[in-house]
């Protein structure tokens, strides 16, 4: 029991660490793309910036924004790791990417023949419809009394309870 909870804690820690690393890398790539486009625009002369930024000033801004970006990436990765760890391992509501692809591209055929209760219900409905059809046909067809003997009517006894006799007051 103790090893299971230890493994669970280790699994969650590893999951959160790797997701935070993924968040840091994602935000680092985004930061570098923004810096690349800024340098491309400023060097190509598309934007007239007057004096422009000095090289040391630009490096200070780049370093400061890099630190902020890495912290935001780590925060985003941890948040994402917590969210998906709960979804996948604690709730069990997400089967994974492979199951998602299989369910969307090759859905299961909906066939109710495998369930016995649906087969029974369908058979009952068909039997009821056939009985109504048979009853309708018997009303249409006249049966000769000479060929088919009529059954004797069932005699039923009517049993009544006798009312209790009144006792005379004395």
From TrEMBL:
Region (Disordered): 144-170
Keyword terms of this UniProt record: Membrane, Transmembrane, Transmembrane helix
TM stretches of this protein: 14-41, 61-85
Compositionally biased tracts (Basic residues): 154-170
Identification of the protein by name: Uncharacterized protein
Species whose genome carries this gene: Candidatus Doudnabacteria bacterium CG10_big_fil_rev_8_21_14_0_10_42_18
The organism's taxonomic lineage, starting at the top: Bacteria, Candidatus Doudnaibacteriota
């Amino acid at each position: 029991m103790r090893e299971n909870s230890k493994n669970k804690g280790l699994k969650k820690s590893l999951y959160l660490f790797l997701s935070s690393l993924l968040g840091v890398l994602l935000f680092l790539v985004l930061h570098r793309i923004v810096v690349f486009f800024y340098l491309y625009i400023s060097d190509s002369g598309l934007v007239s910036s007057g004096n422009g930024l000095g090289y040391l000033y630009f490096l200070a801004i780049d370093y400061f924004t890099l630190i902020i970006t890495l912290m935001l990436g780590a925060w985003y990765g941890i948040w994402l790791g917590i969210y998906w760890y709960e979804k996948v391992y604690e709730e069990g509501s997400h089967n994974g990417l492979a199951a998602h692809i299989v369910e969307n591209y090759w859905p299961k055929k909906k066939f109710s023949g495998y369930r016995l209760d649906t087969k029974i219900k369908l058979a009952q409905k068909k039997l009821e419809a056939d009985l109504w059809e048979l009853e309708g046909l018997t009303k249409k067809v006249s049966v000769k009394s000479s060929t088919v003997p009529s059954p004797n009517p069932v005699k039923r006894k009517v049993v009544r309870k006798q009312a209790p006799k009144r006792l005379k007051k004395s």
